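Sample A.
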Amino acid sequence: MAPQADIRWGKPLEDYAPSYDITAAQKRGLVTQEMEKEAEKVKNRIYGEALSVSGQVPNPGNLVGLKDITLPMLKAVLELTISPRHLHFFADPIFLGGCIRVLTQVKPEGKLSPFSHEFGYLCFRIIAIGIGACILKATDNLDVAIQNIEQDIDTELLLMFSGHVSRVLLDKIHARPSDCDWVMGWASTEGYPDLQPFLSSSDLLRMLNFLWEDRKLFVQALSRTYLPGLSGVVFVLWRYTCSSSKNASVSSNKLMTAPFCELLWRSMLVATEDQFTTLHFINNFVYYDKKQDSWDQSPKYVDLEDSCTLLNTLSARLVPADRRLFKPLSMLPLVTLLQTMIELVQPGSEGCYPALLTGIVERFWTALEENELLEDTILTAGSVFLCLG
């Protein structure tokens, strides 16, 4: 018997996922005043504002309880994404922090699991959009993105939004790779002297923790849905681990860096092409800074189901069905992901090997036919087969 929808948490993953594929990202429409009012009510709830004799006392995320937020409320907020101009609604640091704190309380069976049911997934969807909107606003690109989305009515609204986030991040990282914390509001830079942080260190740690705790369903959920702004989520976690490593002890830094590295690679597995380029760029710096060493030296936490999910997702990434959203992996990221997946393979997942080997051979053959294997990529291509040895 299929799992039933929970009154509190909504549909389980296998049932909610089809409602949030790329088709949902295309939806556009008119946002009424009533819809705006409902969304504002939810925002005020999540702000955690309490009434006292002196008026409203803002205390984001502390006074709000999970019982105060319902699934219909989250849906009311996401209804605003049918209108480009309402993306401003999500660029709200207090609202963003409150959503993160709400999500840390999602424990359907007594265990933190944001992606097991629709409630947690929608809350994370709001967070991802909020992070992207804050990044665009901080870099003076939010209004430009909205204008472009309004002009191109044929492309999915959230796909365009997500692409803008990724391209802005790629540009800012490329310009100043060792000094892009200003995007987070953690430092000043020329032209942006008065930026304020849109995420606190404590909320970033909370987000890293709940993604790590639910990393298995994270891959399953994102491989079956379209999540806008994945590059923004990974970027803020990357900057958090880099910033923390400057002040943390070796042991505490390793505790944060190893989970981040694996979450980065899991994100690369499920990222659409517009997000993948930025994630791969971040990955280059992870290797340059030798952050992957922390993961290499850490114990691996993966079961048979997770192992098979990772291998099957990699196989699908090699020969994607939707060539508009995904492109076949090039050799360098293929080696990165293959090295990671091999470390996570569990006994019993041998049934996944034929599809993966077939995909690798096909990808290698295509690279030969299309002259991708230039001199500087021959060794990389050879590394693919060494990984399989």
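Sample B.
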Amino acid sequence: MNGYPVSLTEVWAKDGEGGIDLTEKVLHVIENAENHFAPLYDGNGIDSGENPQNPPKCSRTILKERWDV
């Protein structure tokens, strides 16, 4: 599907055995795919801002990118 790996899971019916294919695909992507990760905040906590009129950078980014909808 659009170049993304897909896996049918049956963890409800087969417990952990039903998720092995998904696990293998996730691990393959983690180990081999190009990564553009960048943290939203400096590591002091996602809600490190005290002043509601001046929210921390991560909150402004979430609102700007509309990830809250």
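B remarks: The radius of gyration is 18 Å. Helices lie at 11-14, 20-32, 57-65.
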